[in-house]
Amino acid sequence: MARTVDSTPDVLGPATSDAATDAGGSRGVRDDVTAFVLGGSGGLRRRAAGAAGTWAGLALVGMLVAIPLRGLYRFTGGTMEEGFMLYFPERVARGDVPNVDFLHLYGPGSLHVLAGWYGIFGHHLAAERTFGLLQHLGILLALFTLARAWGRLAATIVASLAVFYVLTPIALTAMAWNGGLALTLWSTVFAVRALHVDGVRRRRAWVVAGVLAGLAVTYRPDLVVALGLVYGWLLWRHADCRRPVLAGAVVGLVPMWVHLALAGPVRAFEGMVLDPVFRLRAGRELPRPPSWDRLDGGLQAVAEEIPPWWRLPHLSAPQTIFCWFFLMLLVAAGLLALAILLRRRSEPTGRSTVLLATALVAVGILPQGLQRPDSAHLLWVTCVSFPFLVPAVVELLARWWPRADARRLVVAAGSFAVLFTFTFTALFTFRYYLLHTRIGLGQVPSPFKVQRDDRYFYLGDVRAFEGVQAAVDELDRRAQPGDRLLVGPSDLRRTWYSDVFIYWLFPELEPATYFIEMDPGLANAEGSSLADDVASADWVILTGLWDGWMEPNASMEFGSDRPNQVLRERFCEIGNYADGQAVLYQRCR
Questions:
Q1: What local confidence, expressed as pLDDT, does residue 47 receive?
Q2: Going by fewer Cβ within 10 Å, which terminus of the chain is more open, N or C?
Q3: Rg (CA), the chain
Q4: What is the Cα 56 distance to its own chain's centre?
Q5: Any bridge partners for residue 488, and if so which?
Q6: pLDDT of 262 above 80
């Protein structure tokens, strides 16, 4: 069958019936018709179609991922975030329901998938991080596939640059955001591909796009904004896609339907919408724009107390975050404006269609960076828009120098994108990539391993390690299977963080609280169940790992003191380890 293209009337520009038409006037820049996203086979099989070049590009991206990999497996994890990605799927496998038995601010999809993953590969930190690696690879390969519309070299540069954005914010932690973003990008790939094929292949591509979109929402419901922009455009313009896309989305949302049935619509809505969007916001949001002379994020400030080695010229950490925030907005808006301009001024090409779809994703995920502009959230957003500066600059250069060779344009655009990254984000991209590499090579000491039996977790501070390990060892000697455990910060009036990994080290104990993950404004709110949860516990471990937490938001406010009162009235201190880094309590007999 003949290839079809984005040929229906477009409100953003005139129609076209020839995907190979190059409206930019450049002799070198053409749609790469072998690209999977443009309806081709992907150019992976036939040497004549450039398969060797495609595989070489993928090999380069794989090599960049492999260089810091050993260090990434040994790196310090987020004691709450990585802790609950280890522990929550295990609770789900045992029959617990998110938003009913424990607080969970995201969708159920990642927990269900991880529960199955751990069932196959075991409940180990390495298994969790391997799944996180697969999610990262999903993002990188999706960006490679999208950029293939500009050729193999452009795709290789885009995905290679994205490595420094994707691997650095939270190492290999299998966070729901990364899985949801990978699914969103692949849904976009299949949606654009559907515009360039026909017949059964077109319907199949629409269905797959819908399934992936539905799955993405089960991971992170807030990705509905990005998906809504992409599919709002597509469903409006292409009536034939509505039924297969919606049918696929219904299938992809199966984890959400199951969750709504188990938790009930009210509890699910409260846990996935009201808690994260409204109740939690005051205690987690950071100033917009960020401060020029200080780091606003508590975790960011702790990480920069002993910064990794980096002697190359750079902006300071606060200045980096400040500039990055505005560039995040500028680049996303610029990509969208350029895509619209290209489609309005000339006949749309496959490249302009890909650029528009990617730009809509980049704009749709901006709320993730706006709500809490620290380096992790900025990386989660700009891992799409900043690498895609390469094809955007190629399009601009092609119009300024229409007779320039395509390879030269791509090299020039790639050089600009690398320089841009180095200038404005080096401290949190290239520097942390180097840190992970040095850990893997043994040039930087590995973090300290808190261990119980075959389960372990890494901490970066020796005093924290000594205190937590001592408390874990003592609890191991005293606790009985079925006992109830509660873990929290040293002052339960300020529930700004929780070391969830300690629960995971004791799978035979029952969590004593709904607030396994602790957040300001939720766990410490007046009338919350935390005081009753403390009263129900047999054991309590309070940690001082985050006693220096400082953020310009409501997390600094004192909440209810009732949980502390219950602890004083009903519990006896068993041990205070490493000057309060961990304190173990037992219910008084």
A1: 66
A2: C
A3: 25
A4: 27
A5: 542
A6: yes
> What is the mean predicted confidence (pLDDT) over 96-103?
98
Residue 284 CA neighbour count, 13 Å, CB half? 21
Q: Judge whether 296 and 552 are in contact, CB under 8 Å.
A: yes
Closest residue by Cα to residue 169 from 332, 341, 347, 321: 321
Q: Nearest CA to 383 among 312, 434, 324, 340?
A: 324
Alpha carbon distances (Å) from 412 to 393, 429, 494, 562 = 8, 21, 51, 62
164 close to 431: Cβ distance less than 8 angstroms: no
| Residues counted in the chain | 589
CA distances from 551 to 78, 302, 359, 556 (A): 18, 11, 32, 7
Q: How far apart are CA 296 and CA 373, in angstroms?
A: 9
Whether the model clears a pTM of 0.90, i.e. scores above it, the answer is yes
pLDDT tops 90 at residue 472:
yes
CB atoms within 10 A of CB 439: 22
**What does pLDDT average to over the chain?**
93
User: Distance (Å, rounded) from C-alpha 446 to C-alpha 468?
Assistant: 17
Q: Which residues of 183-207 are buried (b: 16+ CB within 10 A; e: fewer)?
A: bbbbbbbbbbbbbbbeeebbbbbbb
Q: Mean pLDDT lowest for which of 19-33, 98-112, 531-545, 569-583?
A: 19-33
Determine the average pLDDT of the residues in 192-202: 96
Phi and psi at residue 587, to the nearest 5°: -55, 130
- Asked if 501 and 78 touch (Cβ cutoff 8 Å), the reply is no
ω into 14 cis (within 30 of 0): no
Q: What angle do CA 169, 170, 171 make, to 5 degrees?
A: 105
The CA dihedral of 453, 457, 458, 464, to the nearest 10 degrees, is: -80
Give the residue-averaged pLDDT of 350-365: 97
Q: Which of 43, 335, 349 minimizes the C-alpha distance to 196?
A: 349
Say how many CA atoms lie within 13 Å of 93 toward its Cβ: 18
Query: Which residue bears the tokens 């038995």?
Result: 101
